Amino acid sequence: MTLRAELTLTRGSFELSVSLSVPEGGVLAVLGPNGAGKSTVLSCLAGLVRAERAHVRLGGRVLDGDGVRVPAHERGVGLLAQNALLFPHLSVLDNVAFSPRSRGASKAEAREVARRWLDEVDAREFADRSPAELSGGQAQRVGLARALAGEPGLLLLDEPLAALDVDAAPAVRGVLRRVLRESGRKLATVLVTHDPLDALTLADHVAVLAEGRIVEQGPAREVLAAPRTVFTARLAGVNLVPGTATRTGSGAVVRTASGQSFHGVPARDLADGDAAVAVFNPGAVAVHPHDAEVAGSPRNVVNAVVTAVEPHGPVVRLRTREGISADLTPASVADLALEPGTPVRLAVKAAVVAVHAAPEPARGPDPAIGW
Ligand SMILES: Nc1ncnc2c1ncn2[C@@H]1O[C@H](COP(=O)(O)OP(=O)(O)OP(=O)(O)O)[C@@H](O)[C@H]1O
Question: ABC transporter domain spans which residues (predicted)?
Answer without folding.
Answer: 2-236
